[in-house]
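User: Sequence recovery, please. Input:
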């Protein structure tokens, strides 16, 4: 029988907090059970296992993150929206490293489609990029460029991997400017022109 007061929501929130405090890789069912002073087996009344817990963490963190990014871009377009979106992304990644790590796992396609947070994420990002006049397949390519750039910068910054004396904020601002220039000058293929085989 489930322990009184223990719910899936409380477990996932506690797991997300633990991820921020101790690192995503250190979130285990045993560690979570210790936090609630229960046996590991008690958790299975609420989650199916570690993978299920991590999926739920990803959805929780993804919802938190998109709420912040959507609020940041509201009423903005173009470079201003891009800078606000990128700033909210970076702030969340650096403030909540464990939660952010959870958002990087690959989710089952049907689960991502059914998730309101994931649908909203797609709407916000694609809306941001459509303002640059992009359509498919360029939209998907641009999303991948944006995600790779922001994730790469945040991951390296979080790991303390930038050793040059150049100010991190200045480099971040230049990276966002470079993304804006790239998006405004996106190389579009001519209709009917085949992709290079290289």
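Assistant: Recovered sequence (198 residues):
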């Amino acid at each position: 029988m489930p322990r009184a007061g223990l719910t899936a929501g409380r477990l996932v929130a506690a797991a997300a907090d633990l991820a921020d405090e101790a690192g995503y890789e250190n979130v285990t069912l045993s560690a979570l059970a210790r936090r609630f002073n229960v046996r590991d087996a008690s958790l299975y009344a609420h989650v199916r296992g570690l993978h299920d817990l991590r999926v739920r963490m990803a959805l929780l963190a993804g919802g938190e993150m998109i709420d912040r990014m959507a609020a940041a871009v509201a009423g903005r377009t173009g470079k201003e929206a891009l800078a606000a979106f990128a700033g909210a992304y970076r702030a969340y990644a650096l403030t909540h490293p464990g939660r952010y790590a959870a958002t990087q796992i690959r989710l089952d396609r049907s689960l991502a489609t059914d998730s309101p947070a994931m649908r909203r994420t797609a709407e916000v990002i694609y809306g941001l990029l459509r303002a640059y006049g992009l359509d498919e397949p360029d939209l998907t390519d641009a999303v991948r460029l944006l995600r790779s750039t922001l994730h790469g910068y945040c991951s390296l910054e979080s790991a303390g991997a930038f050793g040059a004396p150049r100010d991190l904020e200045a480099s971040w601002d230049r990276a966002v400017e470079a993304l804006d220039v790239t998006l405004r000058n996106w190389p579009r293929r001519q209709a009917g022109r085949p992709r290079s085989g290289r």
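DSSP finds nine helices and no strands in the chain.
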